[in-house]
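Reviewer 2 asked us to include a model.

Predict the structure of this chain.
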Amino acid sequence: MVDRTDQVYDREAEGWQRGLYDDVKATFRAPVVNWIFRTAVANVPEVTRYAWGQVKPVFQTRAFAEFTAEYRDAVLGPLEVGDGLPSYRRVDVDVSPAEFRELRGQLASFDVVAPRLAVLFELLDRGLYGDLSPEPSTERADTAPFPEHVDRDRGRSPTMIDPGDVPDGAEDAASGLRSFHGLDSLPSVYRCLAQWPAYFDRAWGDLEPTLTGDAFSDARERADETTAVFVDGIAYRPRIAPDDLRGAGFTDEQVDDCLELFRPFVDGPVGSVLPAIHAFAATVGVVGDRGTD
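Predicted model (structure tokens):
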């Protein structure tokens, strides 16, 4: 039986868990360990260690770097048609210079992570059920190393409000975003942005018509297609199907717990949360590469 409220937080990790978290942050090029890793380490630690070793090579290629740019462009292209996306200076959102630097830096971390999580969820969704394409691409980029300059040192370590502790001035945005994503609680990115209520409220108010319209539906479809095409062609095939896990020595109970844990993640609101991150990042000019050199 898994408990999705149970997590091993970054500050609590020790031993191999500390090493794994450091490796995730280095590989993802962002100073944050996402909730899927924290929850997985708490519930299925040994399977998580094995699975990370299987999926990690996917994120270390030039092809993946190119994908991150294509993913952002797939999302933002439809949203920039017509009036486009809002763009704020510091004075527009009533924050100090230090606060604006922190807001931009923390939001940049989420912009870095979003394409990585999109691929991770696609890998889990297909890999755990043995549905990865048997014909990998043979292009040089599929095995060439990840370029050093891409997404390097862009973000700051995210901080966030406690769950349910929404500050004054951020209530309407928090309620609207929970409703928009169909969630009972705020995802981490919004718990981060709620630290700056004036920005959070204005950004949601300005973005809501775009995110609830046809343009965002198109952006989501393009993002999903871009992710699926990339995963179809990966050169390194994670061996994480149930038979692979059993062959690696895991018990039926461990395999069942793994499937129970990850299925709600990949079937949940990720399809709307991850693309929305790039829309918010665009409002303060911290969108990463949309085309590699």
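The chain has one domain: 62-283. The chain has a mean pLDDT of 94. We have added this to the supplementary material.
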